Structure formats: structure tokens, C-alpha cells
Fold this protein.
Amino acid sequence: MDLSPDWVVGFVDGEGCFYVGFTEHPEMTAGYQVLPEFRVVQHKRDIHVLHGLKRFFRHGVVRQNHEDRWELRVRKLDGLKQVVSFFRKHPLKTKKAVDFQKFARIVYWMEKRKHLSIEGLLEMVKYAQGMNTAASKRLKEIESDLLGKLSKG
Amino acid sequence: MDLSPDWVVGFVDGEGCFYVGFTEHPEMTAGYQVLPEFRVVQHKRDIHVLHGLKRFFRHGVVRQNHEDRWELRVRKLDGLKQVVSFFRKHPLKTKKAVDFQKFARIVYWMEKRKHLSIEGLLEMVKYAQGMNTAASKRLKEIESDLLGKLSKG
């Protein structure tokens, strides 16, 4: 399956998801791990499209999401950088572009290891709250946890 | 907003719907009206994309679907012919292409006024049952109603 850049943009405008997870991780200085993730979910009848996208980005894993749903998931930094670089050159047309901008910034910050300090991570958590996919309540909790750590330190 | 054909194909592969409705209509010979419909639904934050698609196809109506959801809907024969002609030239890549093929055949049959005879309509109802968007139970009911009319006639 040969995918053109414009087709990929259109499809991801519809079906793609730029998500940033924050999970507790006691061994890290700031206590949390940052997990940016690019994801496209499809019914298994269209699993060929997920494999096509994986070849297109040359990164990611095709895996089961839930029951009949499968997903392409990109989590590794090299893959995320590839995804970010593609959508910078080929902008999304829906409001998903706003999430993408924030996602791209967070990937950039991770590369710069900003998430390893409490101050840096706090800024990232605040920034991620503007995303459409954000779990706002959870992020608020993490934010106050980090503020607590800062005031103690 | 300038949309390229490939972007439109990708977006419709994700978000488009090719639907054929059959509704009772006592004044028609066969007793049913055939309503093929091309539809793209979006959250209102992306209503600009629906207007972009409307300009792209030069047909259709942008209207509220449900609460925060809006839709571009193409129902008129001229518009449907335009949509069919576009996706014949620019094939969909997901299994939605199967629905599209059936949809296109039904639009063609309507143009040929096949739906005006009971035999013709019966064939269309049977054919539509293979569509992913089909309300199979309802179509089965219509099928047996038409078979009943045929045996009486």
C-alpha cells in the first residue's frame, strides 16, 4: 500500500491521536515518567492501513488495542521525532493541529531532558493541560504534587 | 482552506460515511423511497473543515448533527454524482471502499430509475445489505415486504 503525504495528513486529521501520558515512576528525580504517544486506532478489517502507516513513518508498533480494534503506536523518541518532523512539513488541517503543536514541544523538551527536573516537569504538565486529549483532573493532581515537592525541596 | 484530493481521500477514509436509507413512502409505486447519503461528521470546533469539503465537492449542506457535532451531508443526485465521480478517480484505501462501491452502484441505479419498480427496488435492498453501514434487520423486513407485494401482484 502506497500512501501519499497528503493522504496521511487527511487520515490522521480524522483518526490520529497525539497523547502525552504522565505516570508515576519513583526512581526518577521528579517522580514521574513522561510518555508522549502518537496513535492511530482502526477496526481490524483495516489493519493493512496501520501497517501502511508504520512503513510510511518507518517506526511504531501495530498491536491490539481493544477487542476488534488495533492500533499503530509510536512511543520511541526516534519514531516520535520522525512523526513530528513529518507533520511540521505537512500541517494538519483540523484543530488536532493545536494538540500536535503541544505534543511536538513536549517531545522536544524530552529530548532536551527537561522532564528530569521537577521545575521542568511542572512546566510540561501545565503545558499539556491545554491538549484536547488531556486528562485534566489527573494533570491537576500531578501539578499540585510537583508544587508540593518543590516547596519541600 | 485549500484541500488536496489526497487529503480528502485520507480524511473521508477516516471520517466519511456512505449510507443508503430506505424509507416508507406510500405514494411511490414500490412503496419506498431510496435515500443515498454521503456524510462527514465533525465536532463543531472543526466546522471549517466541513465548509472546506463542501467547497471542494461544490455540493452538500453543512448542518447540525447532534449537540456539538456538525455534518456535511450530500443527498441531491447532482452532488452524489460528483462525490461518486471523485472517489472513482481517487480510490479510498480502507475497507470503506467496499461500501463506496455499493453506494456508487445504488446512485447509478437511482439515476436509471430502477428504484421505481418493485423488482428493481428489491434488488437494491438486497444489494445494500452488504454495506458496513447497513441496518440489516430493517432491510430484511423491507425485503420480505417487497417479496410479499411481488407475489400479490
